[in-house]
Amino acid sequence: MKRLAIITRFFLCLLLLTFSIVKAQPPRGPLVVSPEVHQDKKITFRYQAPRAKEVKLSAQFEKAPVSMTKDSTGLWSVTVGPVKPDSYPYSFQVDGITVMDPANVAYFPNERFKASMVDVPGEEPLVFAMKNVPHGTVTYEYYPSIQETTGSLVVYTPPGYEKNPSLKYPVFYLISGTTDTEETFFKVGRVNLILDNLIAEGKANPMIVVMPYGNPLARIAEQTGKPKPAYVMVRDGEDAIKRAQLFEGDLIHQVIPYIDKNYRTLTDRNNRAIGGFSRGGGQTLRAGFNNMDTFAWICSFSAGLSPAEMESNYKHIGADAKKTNEQLRLLWISVGTDDFLYQGNVAFMEYLKSKNVKYKSLLTDGGHTWMNVKTYVTETVQIVFKN
Amino acid sequence: MKRLAIITRFFLCLLLLTFSIVKAQPPRGPLVVSPEVHQDKKITFRYQAPRAKEVKLSAQFEKAPVSMTKDSTGLWSVTVGPVKPDSYPYSFQVDGITVMDPANVAYFPNERFKASMVDVPGEEPLVFAMKNVPHGTVTYEYYPSIQETTGSLVVYTPPGYEKNPSLKYPVFYLISGTTDTEETFFKVGRVNLILDNLIAEGKANPMIVVMPYGNPLARIAEQTGKPKPAYVMVRDGEDAIKRAQLFEGDLIHQVIPYIDKNYRTLTDRNNRAIGGFSRGGGQTLRAGFNNMDTFAWICSFSAGLSPAEMESNYKHIGADAKKTNEQLRLLWISVGTDDFLYQGNVAFMEYLKSKNVKYKSLLTDGGHTWMNVKTYVTETVQIVFKN
After folding, report:
1. Is residue B115 located within the same domain as residue B144?
2. How far apart are CA A282 and CA A299, in angstroms?
């Protein structure tokens, strides 16, 4: 009887605890399971919003937002698919407001929009799936950046890095897209798992991958407390070029020396690659073409430079194609045929062709997406640092 | 003239790029600056939601949600404060729906709610501020977990770890709260910066900090595709104890051996501490009391065990207080006087006192918050691993 009383008191106390946490923390709402990926590759999304008038699913596997329906408890849901196996960003549009899925901890790190991530597994595990293979690690680093600020970057080291203290590794620098952060290639691009899997299969050489933040000017404004110059915010135009130059200076004079000092790297140009997506792809091409003594492998993922910019700023690439072709072990150009930059890439490739500059291209289905970025990363990590 | 044409075409192309990105990515809306922390420590929050009827700010420095007002463009805003320097979780309540601030990349990793983070700097830099001191690194690891799943954890190594390959370090295991993830002590608790700063001042010994995920059962369900048992979801009661036991098994038999194998650790009990917040604090006390041969330092942050549970499960702690006091270099109990667990902590301390079990306590202002957790971490890392 006494035991029962103790147990009762114990559960009452726990009940109180539950209730109180709900009050003390940001409101949690009822438990919702979302997304639920079914065996047949259909997905059910759920969102609790009793007062909302309209909730839609916005997912990168759908061409347009999909209406969700509300039940009597205020739970909105929709089942879509079957969906092609991949990892996709999605969000809910609640009365026109874009929100992450509160029931899902997998998120898309970005400075401007909020999105969650959903994985649809393949019949065979996908190249970025968590498999039972040796895993590398992903490290968040601070480094001394330009203008006396502290920069942040994310570094992948391959399996065995810690156990082989005499080995040195080549380094692939990956620059993410507009308003992405230094976390995006890790959390959305799954670069670590792609490399774990391809290294395990012997398809990629062990390498270090360095993922810096692409917009040091924003960080400088933030850390120095100075008002942000207008070009922190804009994505394009002359100011975007200023920003790209700032990035390039930070990469060449701060990031690379920091990495070479703190990791066991091979430091010759043949052991340094650079690649980037979208804005980061533009920064990659600019930094790569300006620093051919630093990088022998240059990869553009859904980016490209206009023939006009090539002519005005990187004339040397085409003017001495023989030298370019000797120096560049790889000039990689990849884009989806539905990408809004597809025609720009065609023009870029036509330009290179007309100058006899060699490149490898991969044109895929799809648009300006991280699904495509994962494909391009998968392909290029199997090429770089090989003979 | 030709140059002008090239430039014009270039900018047109960039304009198109801007427009198209907006279409291809999740909707971004207009550029909003939020939060804006002013010199006088007031903060302006902004949220773009033309169709919303009511938007409120829910911030942990406010006792209740604060109404925001809408301008003619649909931009909601409010200026609050001055706010006491600290780092706070906040979110917007948009027609009753809790959302993160889309203009802010600093987020609170949690499985159930979405919140952003805002920093109000102090006149003197706070203990978790980014200072110009040597920085350690934070590494995301996968490890072989129970039931043939792959677990994830986050590891802080102190400045100089890589450069001193002959040095071995003590390890502090930190277990986060209910529905927090293995990222929360890093992203919200700022454990890495607290240690960087205190180590630089000579106030804390260099140490490794290991931050595991607190709910392996949820991960097992996720990875094995089995239906989740009910006790994945519940926070309390008998099933919560089952979950705590599973966590303890994973910690003792999987996490610690993995860390000792892959990091240069000191492996005796005097060089192992464990601490945790909320649910993680309960798991800490249970795992600590059950494994006194493993941990000599046990820290409860806003947690506590009931006298009833102490009597039924950890009787040995009070029954042989002399042994307990000899073994435990530190039993730390901290809680805010506004915490809903305050009375529970008083009862816990009364119980220990009645049994002559020694402990150190810190009662602070405030409630069940990560602001308090940062304070408790700051205090305890200056005590552990010292004579």
Report:
1. no
2. 10
